Amino acid sequence: MSQKVFMIGGTGLLGSKAAEQFIAHGDSVKTLALPPLPEGAPLPEEMEIIFKDVNKCTDEELEELMTGCDTLVYAAGVDERAEFPPPVYDAYYKYNIAPLKRLMPMAKKLGYKGTVICGSYFSWMAKNFPKMKIRERNPYMRSRLDQEEYAFSLADDNFYVAVMELPYIFGTQPGRRPVWTVLINQIKMMDKLPATFYPKGGTAMLTIRQVGEVIYGATQATKGARAYPISCYNMKWDEFLKIVYDARGMGKNRKVIGIPPWMMAMAMPLYKLDFKKRGIESGMDPMQLPYLMDYDLFFDTETSYHDLGATPDDIKAAIFDSIKVSVDVVENGKELLGMKGEEDQNVSSL
């Protein structure tokens, strides 16, 4: 039976890929999105795009827009890379939680079947390592857990809630600036050294196409409330960075030396000082970050492939492409639309 999807963020990097999947399976998609559109982005022609800010719609406007649909997908919000003045949690609440507190009760009122939310795999880490006090020390992780807990409170036999605990994601959308410019700026500082010093851990990851596939799959597989830790590939940082350096034109054999977290933590006060000078509060505790990155945050890929219907993709090519575009922005000054959209330029369509 076909679905009628109401999506927040359908023109973004991830939302557009989810829209492609829904439409390919015979579903319809209506999305709220913020202008401008990324130049040259191959958005599905069948998707109905309404240029409105969900945070500025009245309840009456939202109800009118949502009427006639039966599935809610929230592919918008901010992550730990967005910068805000303190208290940073208030910004995370505004963009990651407050919209759902309006959208989800309305979806239930209108008889929707359920909701899929793009979340973070840091939620999984916070839940599974309580002794690390990740929730208490990191406002971003706290916001994602609060988002998840609120959403699950609305699940019942007639309304499912799926939270996609998404890890590192690679792939590009023409006309849009990748988030990986942050990484390029970080590692450039070590270019003149004989090696790159980086944590020893690793991360789960997937491509943007696979994100679209698992979002669609969650609408088919979920009953009640479920958080899905997502991974299609698990990669150590040193292997990942070798692909990054190759994409930067520095060859495939750059030496990467894994360092213990205490060594990385020695540099973190500099980041804290920079945040303070700029009037910014980080969403992640800089002194805990080295210890988080020392961990192999890997997941079994069976959930993504078997349960949610992801199909294999070329992750190395996706990393390469993401870094190439990021290098064009950082080193060549290429101007692309940021992962942002509201007037204050801090809300992103994922």
Question: How would you summarize this macromolecular structure in one to three sentences?
Answer:
The protein has helices at 13-24, 59-66, 88-109, 121-128, 134-137, 139-153, 181-187, 208-221, 237-247, 261-265, 268-278, 289-293, 302-307, 315-332; strands spanning 4-8, 28-33, 48-51, 71-74, 76-77, 114-120, 160-166, 168-170, 196-199, 202-207, 225-229, 233-236, 256-259, 296-297, 348-349. With 350 residues, the protein is α/β, with parallel strands linked by helices. Helix 3 (88-109) runs parallel beside helix 6 (139-153).
Query: What order do the SSEs take from the amino end to the carboxyl end, as H and E?
Result: EHEEHEEHEHHHEEHEEHEEHEHHHEHHE
Mind describing the biggest β-sheet?
A: 7 strands, parallel
Our Rg estimate from Cα atoms comes to 20 Å
How many DSSP helices? Answer: 14
End-to-end Cα distance: 27 Å
Helix share of residues? Answer: 40-55%
Question: Widest sheet: strand order?
Answer: 3-2-1-4-6-7-11
Return residue spans where pLDDT drops below 50 for at least 5 consecutive residues.
340-349
Globally, the shape reads globular
Main structural class: alpha/beta
- What is the beta-strand fraction? 15-25%
Please state the average pLDDT score. 94
Tell me the total number of β-strands.
15
